[in-house]
Amino acid sequence: MCLLVVSNMLYAQKFSDYFVDKTLRIDYLFTGNASRQSICLDELSSLPSWAGRKHHLAELPLAGNGQIVMKDAASGTVIYKTSFSSLFQEWLETEEAQTATKGFENTFLVPYPLRSAEIEITLFDLRRNVRASLKHTVDPNDILIHQKGIERITPHKYLIKSGEEDKCIDIAIMAEGYTTDEMDTFYKDADIAVESLMAHEPFKTMKGRFNIVAVASPSADSGVSVPRLGEWKQTAVSSHFSTFYSDRYLTTSRVRSIHDALAGIPYEHIIILANTDEYGGGGIYNSYTLTTAHHAAFRPVVVHEFGHSFGGLGDEYFYDDDTMTDTYPLDIEPWEQNITTRVDFASKWEDMLPAKTPVPTPVEKAEKYPVGVYEGGGYSVKGIFRPAYNCRMRTNEHPDFCPVCQRAIRRIIEFYTE
Question: Can you list the domains of the chain with their CATH numbers?
Fold first, then answer.
């Protein structure tokens, strides 16, 4: 065992061999419809420092619905990987995508290469087939790489500062729909968001691995857009309810405006607080959490949505009328760690099951089996299973993440910080 550890250390990739302490921001456009998709490179930018991981560079914590692979152009060595999901890929599964063609902004942060690097970005469908991919080469000395975050940095203050950004996970909490005069309210709301998140395990015991900064991005109007009420506001990131005509789905497709507001502030993960008492939110893996700040369910919702965007967790609830049964193919194992079709259950929480746990686990035995295999999850009543009868990823009323979700989040935190 000792020889193996030494061998791995000898061949471990050093950050400084391939990167400088800056961020390369890549703006893409994902375009198309249900039958045909493409990826376009929009703009490259440099940011003053790199807040992401400097280890596990060529590894992925989760598969995601899309991946970015960065290679040293001269040697072909893989020097960085990351994964993500996108609003565009969700939209491709809607009825609208059958007849309309649209484009969605997407922005990703990667470490800034020392030498020319080849970057390949790939989108997958629900069956893990490649939907679209793009390869492009980045010359770090390209004069058209836009330098951002040097001047006009958005006002901000740290709510938690545990250490240097390269040693901690950096979360930015942004204001959406708060005017300049309402920033005191925003900072109070951001405090509530942090308090809510850090009350949940494993965030509670691993709080010292996080830096959290509140970013006072101002909006011209107070509140956010609510299309069903005919209300359209001019706000910092142009968010709105009724995404895909679902009234409580609160998102923004103006992703570049998010990253422009954060330029010059170290960040890896994003929580956006919307100044509204309408119920709703959304969380997209390695993209952002966006949630209402003044509804009574603000506290549980911000934690649930961060479970999506940070932890890559799936929804554990389901619909009795099975309106979304085609979201997950039942003959493919989902990449999310807290739902399973049992196609490859060994890769999920099979090792956490008590001996002789009945499968499916009867609901009436939920007290006996806090970790089980309960049917119903991922929006489907049948064929998809969740690990607990109840969990923060199922209802707003349950106070905690279930043991399986806690382990999944803990593994993500460890991946970024160890």
Answer: 10-147 (2.60.40.3250), 156-309 (3.40.390.10)
